[in-house]
Specification:
This protein is α/β, with parallel strands linked by helices. It is 20% helix and 30% strand. The termini are far apart.
């Protein structure tokens, strides 16, 4: 089976993390999030992968070629954004059999083999990997019958207004004939265009209810949570990149320290992400925040009222608090 990784988005909801890098390259446990997708596909025997690109394409190409020198990627760069389905249509010449589409910023350990078996067993035209969530109003509900056949989509329904708790994980197994239904060289989406059109024509769309982990890294908050989830999955309370430095007596808990970052002696960090090249200075106390790439934060940035003031060189995108307070 071949795969298509959608890696062209700007990631505006991840701002300011994506001001200098494309969304698929944001760091999760010190590694570009798209790398987890590539390894997942390889785990299930996918050897040929198309990558759709639009925003900062060369950065993604360079990163993938560097990190996976023996993998076979086929890059398709869009001059203008074509949407999720339009981007896959642009790859049509590459696709000659059942294929999987997966977002470059989706973090999951989905069992692709089981999903493919479900797809084939139901003779589906398209199978959508879906996840049950407490509140589908933040996404869009997928309504299906007892065997998983989809009969409706409800975009961001009001809380309690929809019986279904299933939402699309942005991962699809698709039969190649479906590509004929997508307009060429025009913006077109799966969720708002292709899938509703397929339902109107009585085609076979199925929802595969995934039990595995899934996180849509669509905002700074889900990005933050994804890092903590991945850290917890390692069974450790701290991740420290091999080339970071941590000073004597520093206390770290629930914290990720990325490449080239420095945590000063006696610093106390809990539930923090210190991005590449950043520094938490000697004695610094941080809670529930992201320290931006190459930014230094120190005790001199606190004012007398116990509130943080920006250093003279600081800009608002360099430190992202969640519930930051001085310890």
């Amino acid at each position: 089976m071949k795969a298509v990784i959608l890696a062209g988005g700007k990631g505006t909801r991840l701002d300011p993390l994506t001001r200098e890098i494309p969304k698929p390259l944001v760091s999760v446990l010190n590694e570009p999030v798209v790398n987890y997708t590539v390894r997942l596909l390889a785990q299930y025997g996918v050897k040929e992968t198309a990558v759709t690109l639009q925003h900062l394409p060369e950065a993604v190409i360079d990163s993938l070629n560097r990190d996976f020198p023996t993998s076979e990627f086929f890059y398709f760069i869009e001059d203008e954004p074509l949407g999720t389905a339009g981007g896959v249509k642009n790859v049509e010449k590459f696709l000659d059999d059942t294929f999987i589409v997966i977002s470059g910023d989706a973090l999951t350990d989905l069992n692709i083999e089981r999903m493919l078996s479900f797809h084939r067993g139901n003779r589906a035209d398209v199978t959508i990997a879906c996840k049950s969530v407490p509140d589908p109003s933040k996404f869009g509900a997928v309504c299906c019958d007892s065997i998983g056949r989809i009969y409706d989509f409800r975009e961001k329904p009001a809380l309690g207004a929809c019986d279904s708790k299933l939402v699309s994980g942005g991962i699809y197994i698709i039969e190649p004939d479906i590509l004929k239904s997508i307009p060429k060289n025009a913006p077109y989406d799966f969720a708002r265009g292709l899938f509703p059109d397929m339902l109107e024509r009585g085609m076979r769309l199925f929802a595969y209810s995934m039990q595995e982990y899934w996180c849509d890294i669509g905002s700074v908050y889900t990005y933050f949570q994804a890092n903590l989830d991945m850290l917890a999955a390692t069974g450790r309370s701290v991740y420290a990149a091999p080339d970071c430095t941590v000073g004597a007596g520093a206390a770290l808990d629930g914290t990720v320290v990325c490449s080239g970052a420095h945590v000063g002696a006696g610093a106390d960090l809990r539930n923090c992400i210190v991005l590449a090249g950043a520094e938490a200075a000697t004695g610094e106390r941080l809670r529930d925040c992201i320290v931006g790439k190459d930014f230094t934060i120190g005790l001199e940035n606190w004012n007398g009222a116990g509130e943080r003031e920006p250093a003279p060189s600081a800009t608002e995108e360099k430190i992202i608090p969640f519930t930051m307070a001085q310890g």
